[in-house]
Amino acid sequence: MSAEIIFRSIVAVLLVVSFSISGYFRRRANRETGEEVRYGKDEVKWSLWVRTIGAILFYVSMMLFLIYPPLINWAQIGLPLWLRWTGIGLMVIAIPLIFWMFRTLDTNVSPTVVTREQHTLVTTGPYRWIRHPLYTFATINFMGVILVAANWFMLITAMVALWALHMRTPLEEQRLLEAFGEEYRIYMGRTGRYLPKWGG
After folding, report:
1. Is 152 within 8 Å of 79 (Cβ atoms)?
2. Which residues contact 140 (CB under 8 A, 6 or more apart)?
3. What is the pLDDT of residues 51-100, one digit of tens each?
4. pLDDT tens for residues 121-179?
5. What is the pTM for the complete model shown?
6. Domain boundary assignment for the chain
7. Rounded to an integer, what distance in angstroms lies between the CA atom of residue 183 and that of residue 123?
8. Which residues are CB-neighbours of 193 under 8 A, at least 6 positions away?
9. If one looks up domain 3-108+121-190 in CATH, what number appears?
């Protein structure tokens, strides 16, 4: 079995696990709250479109890498094997972090800036240190995929989607300020947005 087949097989398994975790908790939140929040609701349209296009291009290129790599080989870059295995390591690390985040968030998970009617302010688990651990852990996961695929097009499309997501974050935090007021303002003061706020 070639190294490429091994890489693609491992990435496929790890992606199925990570997406299954996300899907399970999102469906559970919709079921238990009786409220299905529509994707993109109340978002700035240009940001939503940029993020969606970037994400679609990233996912399509990722699927091509997994199913039929010759169609995406034009964007291949030469990375040493140890760096590609580092990508596998990042994906392995990301999975328990993603599970931890979703389990902590419980039924508060939402695909949009709008909070659920029964939303509660979560400040435990990874939220004790960072306000948006999903973005952080998903970035780790997808950077792992990009390293394994050794593909510059996947890197650019992922960066576009993440940039648009970053531009959405202040609006998301504004909605949380409206929902939780001073409690969330104090929480913002002692946590980092994507990384821990050391000494905060």
Report:
1. no
2. 90, 93, 94, 97
3. 899 999 999 999 999 999 999 999 999 999 999 999 999 999 999 999 99
4. 899 999 999 999 999 999 999 999 999 999 999 999 999 999 988 888 998 899 889 88
5. 0.87
6. 3-108+121-190
7. 11
8. 130, 131, 132, 169
9. 1.20.120.1630
